[in-house]
Amino acid sequence: MGISETDDAAWMRHAFRLAERAEALGEVPIGAVVVRDDRCLAEGWNRPIGMSDPTAHAEIIALREAGRAVGNYRLIDATLYVTLEPCVMCMGAISHARIKRLVFGAYDPKRGAVCHALSLTDAPFLNHRVAWQGGVLEAECSALLKNFFKSRR
């Protein structure tokens, strides 16, 4: 059974709602969901400010929770949905977790480590390759981030 574009959009909407939760807490609005067998294993939203933890990105929180949920740090056959192209730190964690597929909303030309600032999905020094797709609900995810930063200025 394959993943359809409708499924991707539905899970991205879930991640988007988590990003709104981060925004309500004054955090950069990014949300993430780990899915396997069409079931949510874990979710996360940005919390570095509230947790006083520079690693508390939405992806890291979701990966940690998913690992605890399945009793293994290797999340074989799982898909990670996140509202923004992951950074270098998060791409390292995604690779170590053996995420099969990454789906993100907004592209991050300045810091994205999937296909912009770096392309870690194809890095020869990593022993795991992650299939990826960007731009799912891109307009909505981008608008949420732009509006957040606009309101901060």
Keywords:
153 residues; alpha/beta; globular; 5-stranded mixed sheet
Report the total helices: 5
State mean pLDDT (0 to 100 scale). 93
| Strand/helix succession | HEEHHEHEEH
Question: Strand count, sense and closure of the main sheet?
Answer: 5 strands, mixed
Query: What is the CA-based Rg, rounded?
Result: 14 Å
Straight-line distance between termini: 46 Å
Q: Per the principal axes of the C-alpha atoms, what is the gross shape?
A: globular
Q: In total, how many beta strands?
A: 5
Which strand order do you get reading across the main beta sheet? 2-1-3-4-5
Proportion of residues in β-strands: 15-25%
Derived from helix and strand composition plus strand pairing, the structural class reads alpha/beta
Could you please describe the fold and organization of this structure?
- With 153 residues, the chain is an alpha/beta fold.
- It contains 5 helices and 5 strands.
- Strands 2-1-3-4-5 form a 5-stranded mixed sheet.
- α1 packs parallel to α5.
- The protein is globular and about 40 Å long.
- The model has no long low-confidence stretch (mean pLDDT 93).
